[in-house]
Design goal:
This protein has one domain: P-loop containing nucleotide triphosphate hydrolases (Rossmann fold). The relative contact order is 0.19. It is an alpha/beta fold. It is globular. Keywords: ATP-binding, Hydrolase, Nucleotide-binding, Transport.
């Protein structure tokens, strides 16, 4: 089979142990064969990414020569054992954290090179192209829920699409809470406000750090469905860090990290397949 001009051939291997389709970049996970895969026109791409903390014997290699692409309009979950580098990877890709200096390092979103750009340039780029969902919510305590939702667009001098805003607010059950300040909301409600805020501008890429971590099962499922629809219907690119196999099963692809390196990938994940892969990574 010959790939079309300009598009790298994707090699997809079927592993009978999982009975799922897997893509991998190393043989860290038992039973996964090794291959090299390149995606055409990725939404997010990085090359030769390093991040270290400390010095000497205390040095920690949070990211160790990571090279990976994330396809446009796809929902990717990033998983790995505690300390594997998954949150560091997401924050570095989102330009919220600075990688080690390296002349071969590249970080691109939508084809724009971001590595080495000035802070004010990165801030402006994130405001226009990126949405964030944090574990800590990052809501402004003096603003109402509605004002927090509208804040990023307001800073960019834009107004929200009222129909889209109303849909998001109603879907996440916030219609009666828009005039409440964060201190008057539960943790789950604050997280939902943060999610609406992240999706409101229909950003090219949404970075989500454990978006269901503070939600009950019903609210968590609604959030996952919304992220799934954002990728499928709105063609947004979703990158989600999670430790939850159920949450990962909503994704198109799971990327596994271990010791700051890409340990493997899984396409069309299921709850059981993700649990099995995580068990192997953790030596269970």
């Amino acid at each position: 089979m010959t790939p079309r001009c300009g598009v790298s051939l994707k090699i997809i291997l079927k592993d009978e142990g999982y009975n799922r389709y897997l893509r991998v970049s190393s043989a860290t996970i038992e039973g996964m064969s090794t291959t090299t895969i390149a995606a055409a026109a990725p939404a997010v791409a990085t090359r030769n990414l390093f991040k270290t903390y400390g010095r000497g014997e205390a040095t920690v290699h949070a990211l160790n020569n990571v090279t990976i692409d994330f396809e446009r309009g796809k929902f990717t979950a990033i998983m790995g054992p505690s300390g594997s580098g998954k949150s560091t990877l997401m924050q570095t890709l989102a330009t919220l954290d600075t990688p080690d200096r390296n002349p071969e390092t590249s970080i691109q979103i939508g084809g724009t090179e971001l590595y080495g750009q000035k802070d004010n340039q990165l801030t402006e780029f994130r405001r226009e192209h990126v949405g964030f969902i944090f574990q800590a919510f990052n809501l402004v305590p003096t603003l109402t829920a509605g004002q927090n939702i509208d804040l990023p667009l307001g800073l960019a001098g834009k107004k929200p699409d009222p129909v889209w805003r109303d849909y998001l607010v109603k879907t996440l059950g916030l219609a009666e809470r828009l005039n409440h300040r964060p201190e008057q909301l539960s943790g789950g409600q604050q997280q939902r406000v943060a999610i609406v805020r992240a999706l409101l501008s229909r950003p090219e890429v949404v970075f989500a750090d454990e978006p269901t971590g503070n939600l009950d099962s019903n609210s968590g499922t609604e959030v996952l469905k919304l992220l799934r629809d954002a990728a499928t219907e709105q063609k947004q690119t979703i990158l989600m860090v999670t430790h939850d196999a159920h949450a990962a099963s909503y994704a198109d692809r799971v990327v596994f990290l271990k010791d700051g390196m890409i340990a493997g990938e899984m396409l069309n994940p299921t709850h059981d397949a993700v649990l099995q892969a995580m068990g192997q990574l953790e030596g269970k």
